[in-house]
Amino acid sequence: MSPATSNHTASRQYGWISISLHWLGVIGLLVSFITGQLTEDAPRSAMNSHVFWATLMAAPILARVIWRAFRGFAPVGDQALVLTLTQTIVMWGLLLSLLAAVISGLLTVWSGGGAIDLGFVSLPSPIGRNYGLHEFMEELHEVAVHAWIPLLVLHVLGALKHLIWDRDGRFLAIFRPASR
Fold first, then answer.
1. Looking at the whole model, is its pTM more than 0.90?
2. Rounded distance, CA 89 to CA 82, Å?
3. Contact 176, 111 (CB under 8 A)
4. Fold for domain 3-173?
């Protein structure tokens, strides 16, 4: 392997923190989405399951958003400008929709006058009941939650492009940390 190839490959690898936050974020997203879908038309007591899991999973999701916001993304290498632009839009879109979903979810509960009950601790509403804000947060939450679906599909397609078409090792990089 030439030095140029070695540096090119190294720049596409991730550390343990990036990999852990990525997969914890994936788990958080799936658990939150599934419990939300299962309890969407259920009584409030059933919705507590979604609120519980989504609140617990908010920490790794927010950590992932903050980590990427400050660390940026791995270099994309040589590809068409339209693919680079698409990748940038998809990645930032995913992070922003996740951030909006987490914040609007918390504010939906709190603006409805409820507390977030985690069993071992209850997080009372810091804002109190506000019907207008509650309605807005419910709508924002719905939009944010569904905005990531096409973005996730594009993200997976991009990953498969790296695996099947480019064969550049980028797909596998999110499964194993960079060696020191």
1. no
2. 10
3. no
4. Fumarate Reductase Cytochrome B subunit (1.20.950)
